[in-house]
Amino acid sequence: MLKAYLTLLLLLSSLPIVFAQNAGARFDATAKVFRLDGGGVSYVFGINARGELQQLYWGGRLAATDSFPQARPMPGWASFDSSYTDTPQEYAGWGADLFNEPALKVTFADGNRDLVLHYDSHAEKAHGFDVVLKDISRPIYVTLHYAMDPDSGILARSATIENRGTDSVTVEQAAAAAWALPAGHYTMNYLTGRRAGEWTLNQEAVHPGARVIESRRGSTGHQANPWFAIQSGESDEGPNSEDQGEVWFGALGWSGSWRINVEQDQLDAVRVTGGFNPFDFGYVLKAGERLETPVFYGGYAQNGLGGASRLLHRYELEHILPRTQVTAGQPLPKPRPLIYNSWEATEFRVNEAGQVALAEKAAALGVDRFVMDDRWFGQRKNDHAGLGDWYVNQEKFPRGLKPLIDKVHALGISFGLWVEPEMVNPDSDLYRAHPDWVLHFAGRPESEERTSWC
Question: What pLDDT is recorded for position 453?
Answer without folding.
Answer: 62
